[in-house]
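Bench log, entry 3. Co-assembly request; chain sequences pasted below exactly as received.
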Amino acid sequence: MLETDVIVVGAGAAGLMCAIEAGKRGLRVLVLDHARKPAEKIRISGGGRCNFTNLHTSPANYLSETPRFCISALKRYTQLDFIALVDRYRIPWHEKTLGQLFCDTSAQDIIDMLLSELSAAGGKLSLETAITGISKPDDRFRLETSRGPMLSRALVIATGGPSIPKMGATGFGYEVARHFGLAVVPPRPALVPLTFSDRNRDLCQRLAGVSLDARVSCGKTTFREGLLFTHRGLSGPSILQISSYWREGLELSVNLAPDETVLDALITARAASPKQELRTAMGRILPGRLADELAKDFGWNGRLADLSNKVLARVAEEVNGWRLTPVGSEGYRTAEVTLGGVDTAELSSRSLEASKVPGLHFIGEVVDVTGHLGGFNFQWAWSSGHAAGRAI
Ligand code: FDA
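Structure output for the full assembly:
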């Protein structure tokens, strides 16, 4: 029977980083994955160029039932540490916007770098390996796999969350946690487009493809980034970000002209050209197609001279504070990440080890730590993987 020091389940960002660090310390490490290829999510990330970290990473960029949990790992392996590794491999990269770092060429550069580090550290990779059972009969873990039973002193679960199931994503990590009596914060899709019903769905369909800069708020949380109308609803970075905070029944407020006080602009336009149609004036503030469709929806009619300040204020509010309530999200099919996961109250923030089950670690997306859009989720994968790899 195969026996080793560490088994890491999941050859994604977190699992590979953990295996590299554990291997460097002289431990015998085996990484198992049921997929045909490792790190498929890295490959497709960032539109194929992998937004591998963010220059401004801080604990404020993460959601968790225990917001301070991520501090320890993020502090001990920072964005600068990962950038230094990327630079050592001479991988060309650039900052796109808001501190987001992308590969110049391809996400495959990051995968090749991790596999090369794994091999240098002596780590082994076993792909297309299904795990059918996990137990801890003594101080070791026993895994039943499609390649036979395996024993290890430490077991690291790095199987990510269930988002994008067609890429091999599963809720396996939560099952393992529950099997060992650990709590799981209910998972839900995040960084995901939001959907609408009735009138707003029709409006989005008519506007599919239109994008603009917007400020989107839900409760006290606000993001200002791009917004995209789609056939199913709203997407784009500002919507993906707010989706992590939105819950069923909550309303969004969308400022479609965040640099403009629309009421002031309309009053000025009325003074300058009183005969101008309201629709025409709105077409100077918003993208033309959007102004036309909103005019139909909201009934923006008449010449400016004939419209009172009260009417203009209503129109301005429809643009600077458009209120709409999503009916749902596109779900795990398109969600970039999963909110919730293994409850951080069960884990050490230093080693990511379960306090009730010595030797069992959870890292990466499977843990209830979820980053904003912009490279923060990979940074959590690197930092938590590094922390566990150093602690095993
Ligand atoms: P990850 O999901 O990467 O790896 C888990 C591994 O476990 C997979 O290889 C899987 O096959 C394996 N596995 C699952 N179940 C198993 C089982 N039962 N048995 C064996 N193996 C199993 N983030 C970011 O910071 N920048 C970005 O640019 C992007 N872009 C992006 C685009 C898209 C389309 C998606 C879906 C996601 C992103 N993300 C992102 C998020 C990022 O990909 C994600 O947070 C990390 O990949 C999480 O890393 P993990 O290693 O935790 O899981």
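The mean pLDDT is 97. The chain has 13 helices and 21 strands.
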